[in-house]
Automatic annotation (TrEMBL):
The keyword Nucleotidyltransferase does not apply. Keywords: Decarboxylase, Lyase, Pyridoxal phosphate. CDD domains: DOPA_deC_like. This is Tyrosine decarboxylase. InterPro entries: Aromatic_deC (IPR010977), PyrdxlP-dep_de-COase (IPR002129), PyrdxlP-dep_Trfase (IPR015424), PyrdxlP-dep_Trfase_major (IPR015421), PyrdxlP-dep_Trfase_small (IPR015422), Pyridoxal-P_BS (IPR021115). The keyword Lyase applies. It comes from Acer negundo (Box elder). GO terms for molecular function: carboxy-lyase activity; pyridoxal phosphate binding. Its cofactor is pyridoxal 5'-phosphate.
């Protein structure tokens, strides 16, 4: 008997431990174990190195080469998660995690995610699960009202909102709608003349979306910013760039303005930028992936002044709004522009509700057909904490960022390199510091400052006591401390500052 025949015979004679893939009582038992495991993880998360310390390829050395033939108990699997998976995790929910932008979570969002996974509906159109569509309509209007968006962005005002996966998807969808809207007027043969604008601080998602949407790479503009303007996109520079393109026979199409840029959380001035774009019929998308959350607080809402002249707006609830990944909230003034570009109507999806045009079919608002019931986690979040508490959670992070900024400014060896608009502080080892007194040339001082700052960041992350990331702006290598993890308290911020000072002391003494 050959090996395959032997395995086949063994398969016929084996008795599986679990008879059904979905057994309610077995789910109940295993679910309790998993929730206890996760609860213990959060209880002990501070004990782990914040950034994973493993080497590439570590997991292949620990796990079997092939999948098990027979079932294994959940207890054994969870033991392996603890022993093999946890060491390879960078702990985004650690109170000492300050890298990138926050990916904050909450009990309400976790439970909403469980409900979403538990129902496991595929809400591509209204009829496929009416509650999934209608709850999303309601929640997106709730959020829009919290942000004081113009009524034209809400379902109640003939606009509307959809939950995308990420900002990349939101930008691609709106750029595609803008492209097709323009090409219907000028002819598809002129796609090579369309120009897309952002700043040199705009997220790379814009360039990726432009590439996917078929915009000529030569027609992508990353307009230069400078330290003198706090690395914001100026209306004057945008106007000059547009003038040059028009003189060359090109057609301005799309501007992505940012509220809280990736590098240093700079804020592009919406009012003057929109005054420029409206002269040319340019579609304006506002990317507030990180900082949009803060705009539910009245003291930060002014950053959105001018939004009434934009065409679309998005922010990531999965960043600084205590919602699990993925959850990007996108609003558009003109849903029909999205629908004309993204809709498909095969016979197998035809239904009476869609034919009435009185329902939202979200498949026509996004790239994919299938979609998850993401609105559940936002609904649970808003109901479980309320607007007042959500504002106070955000304010507590901003307050901690102010504390950290004051600590940095109190040490003359460092400098804060950009205005702190929200809960992120960007700093570096100062080129004018007495530490670099042996360097005579200013350029050499800046170069040495960058080297020391980069080494400092590497040492901190390697220690496992905190995790941060960097940006390069205006030729400066800067460390970003982004405060927004749900478990972070002021003691963690102060403790991290001490870690920074200790590592700089060690670098200088060596």
């Amino acid at each position: 008997m050959g090996s395959n025949e032997f395995e086949h015979e063994a398969e016929k004679n084996s008795i599986p431990v679990i008879n059904r893939p979905l057994d309610p009582e077995e789910f109940r038992r295993q679910g309790h174990l998993v929730i206890d495991f996760i609860a213990d993880y959060y209880k002990n998360v501070e004990k782990y190195p914040v950034r994973s310390q493993v080497e590439p390829g570590y997991l292949c050395k620990r796990l079997p080469e092939s999948a098990p033939y027979n079932p294994e108990p959940i207890e054994t699997i969870l033991q392996d998660v603890q022993q093999h998976i946890v060491p390879g995790i960078t702990h985004w929910q650690s109170p000492n995690y300050f890298a990138y932008y926050p990916n904050s979570g909450s009990t309400a969002s976790f439970l909403g995610e469980m409900l979403c996974s538990g129902f496991n509906v595929v809400g591509f159109n209204w009829v496929s699960s009416p509650a999934a569509t209608e709850l999303e309509n309601i929640v997106m209007d709730w959020l829009g009202e919290m942000l004081e968006l113009p009524k034209s962005f809400l379902f109640s005002g003939n606009g509307g909102g959809a939950i995308q996966g990420t900002t990349c998807e939101a930008i691609l969808c709106t750029l595609t709608a803008a492209r097709d809207q323009t090409l219907r007027k000028i002819g598809t043969e002129n796609i090579g003349k369309l120009v897309v604008y952002g700043s040199d601080q705009t997220h790379s998602a814009l360039q990726k979306a432009a590439h996917i949407a078929g915009i000529d790479a030569k027609n992508f503009r990353a307009v230069k910013t400078s330290k003198s303007s706090s690395f914001c996109l100026s209306a004057e520079t945008l106007q000059a760039t547009i003038n040059s393109d028009i003189e060359d026979g090109l057609i301005p199409l799309f501007l992505c303005a940012t509220i809280g840029t990736t590098g240093i959380a700079a804020v592009d001035p919406l009012q003057p930028l929109c005054e420029v774009t409206k002269r040319y019929g340019i579609w304006v998308h506002i990317d507030a992936a990180y900082a949009g959350s803060a705009c539910i607080c009245p003291e930060f809402r002014h950053f959105l002044d001018g939004i009434e002249n934009a065409d679309s707006f998005s922010f990531n609830a999965h960043k600084w709004f205590f919602t699990t990944l993925d959850c990007c909230c996108l609003w558009v003034k003109n849903p029909s522009a999205l629908i004309k570009s993204l809709s498909t109507n095969p016979e197998y999806l035809r239904n009476k509700a869609s034919d009435t045009k009185k329902v939202v079919d979200y498949k026509d608002w996004q790239i994919t057909l299938s979609r998850r019931f993401r609105a559940l986690k936002l609904w649970l979040l808003l109901r479980s904490y309320g607007v007042g508490n959500l504002r106070n959670f955000l304010r507590s992070h901003v307050k901690m960022a102010k504390v950290f900024e004051e600590l940095v400014r109190s040490d003359k060896r460092f400098e804060v390199v950009a205005p702190r608009n929200f809960s992120m502080v960007c700093f570096k080892v100062s080129a004018s510091s007495s530490l670099l007194k042996h360097e005579n040339d200013d350029n050499e001082k800046e170069k040495k400052s960058n080297e020391v700052t980069e080494t400092l960041l590497e040492k901190i992350n390697a220690s496992g006591k905190a995790c941060m990331t960097h940006a390069v702006v205006g030729g400066m290598y800067v460390i970003r401390v982004s405060i927004g993890a749900s478990l972070t308290e002021e003691k963690h911020v102060v403790g991290t500052w001490k870690v920074i000072q200790q590592h700089l002391d060690a670098i200088l003494s060596s």
